Amino acid sequence: MNDGDRVAGRAARTKRADARRNEETLLDAAAAIFVASGVEAPVRDIAAEAGVGTATIYRHFPTRADLIIAVYRHQVEACAEAGPALLASSATPHAALGQWIGLFVEFLVTKHGLAAVLQPDNAGFDALHAYFLDRLVPVCTQLLEAAAAAGEIRPDVDAYELMRGVGNLCIGADSDPRYDARRLVELLIAGLRRPH
């Protein structure tokens, strides 16, 4: 390999890394706008938040559904990646589990309209739901197993059941100001602790 090939390879990797960062910035901006204004927010608002032109958004995501699905997947990835990082940086595995479940709750209660767009009769729903489970259930399992191995929680907690329970507690949280799903989920996670 000559110097020209090495320079070209480095440039291509830098360009790919820049493109990934730009797409992440765009997806973060879209997520913020969706939380604030719902999924029907004008594309120009998303573009302004991301610091790009609307043509850039349409080049990456030709339809609103493409953008919504990409935001959903991006948020699932962020939640999945947070689990191991929290486990490595938290004082205890139970603390990491609590923090991760907090992120999971934020994901669930701030989707504003994603659920309406991603209904079971939508052709891509099954694939997205499978992706969601494939990415997040193993992370939750890892956190639960670490907390159980540390003797902090009961060893018989199933990740899917816990996530399903948390999801059920979050239903309606965005439409009733008197209902605090986060508080109930905190009580649920505290209840996993083993009695001393």
Q: How would you briefly describe this protein structure?
A:
With 196 residues, this protein is mainly alpha-helical. The protein has two domains: 1-62, Orthogonal Bundle (Arc Repressor Mutant, subunit A), CATH 1.10.10; 65-196, Tetracycline Repressor, domain 2.
Structure, explained:
This protein has 196 residues and is mostly helical. Helices cover 73% and strands 0% of the residues. It contains nine helices and no strands. Helix 1 packs across helix 4 and helix 5 packs antiparallel against helix 7. The mean pLDDT is 85. GO terms for molecular function: DNA-binding transcription factor activity; transcription cis-regulatory region binding. It comes from Nonomuraea muscovyensis.
CATH class of the largest domain: Mainly Alpha
Please tell me what the overall shape is.
Answer: globular
N/C terminus separation: 63 Å
**Based on DSSP secondary structure assignment, what is the total number of beta strands?**
0
* CATH fold assignment of the largest domain: Tetracycline Repressor, domain 2
